[in-house]
Known about the structure:
Two copies of one chain form a homodimer. By secondary structure, chain A is mostly beta strands. Chain A has one helix and eight strands; from the N terminus they run E-H-E-E-E-E-E-E-E. In chain A, strand 2 (21-26) and strand 3 (29-39) form a beta hairpin. Chains A and B meet through strand 1, strand 2, strand 4, strand 6 and strand 7 of A and strand 1, strand 2, strand 4, strand 6 and strand 7 of B. Strand 1 (5-6) of chain A pairs antiparallel with strand 7 (75-79) of chain B.
Amino acid sequence: xxxxxxxxxxxxNIEKTWSPVDIAYINDQVIRAAIFHGEYHWHKHDDEDELxxxxxxxxxxxxxxxxxxxxxxxxxxxxxxGVEHKPRAxxxxxxxxxxxxxxxxxxx
Amino acid sequence: xxxxxxxxxxxxNIEKTWSPVDIAYINDQVIRAAIFHGEYHWHKHDDEDELxxxxxxxxxxxxxxxxxxxxxxxxxxxxxxGVEHKPRAxxxxxxxxxxxxxxxxxxx
Lengths: 108, 108
């Protein structure tokens, strides 16, 4: 039987900031949900693009050599592989992440 | 410069039902948005899983040999490759689709 997955139920399982929970796997990719609050560290993924979609709240992503990206609720961006970035959120914000399932959930 | 993509703006570009618009590409996958209304035809994708996430409204997906899947707003499911399915929606509903970018947007 194909299971029905409830986004809010999965989000309710998040225990701490910057620690994504898996929502669904598809074609070797994974959709995760995380709560961002405060600042994450600078990092990059050498072989994978990473998509950030703001489900609730607002985040910004500093990007090496570019202007900081500001994402409001309902907005998204794709950080291409190899690009150094540093997410942050002034208030607790729920972010959906799309990335290859082989990627470690906590980055490099 | 990495572009900011606005989900509602993309959804506003949808011109007719069952005709997805592309939202973002990532790692050879694509996120699309479509308006479902009425019944689609039975089809399957031989090599790709397909994820359906209800952004607004409600849909059901008939699945060969299984109970019909009912998805409310905020709910999702993954139809595995090779599984015949037939989506429908009683009212116009906005659905996000995640699938390999090589997949034709209108299915088989």
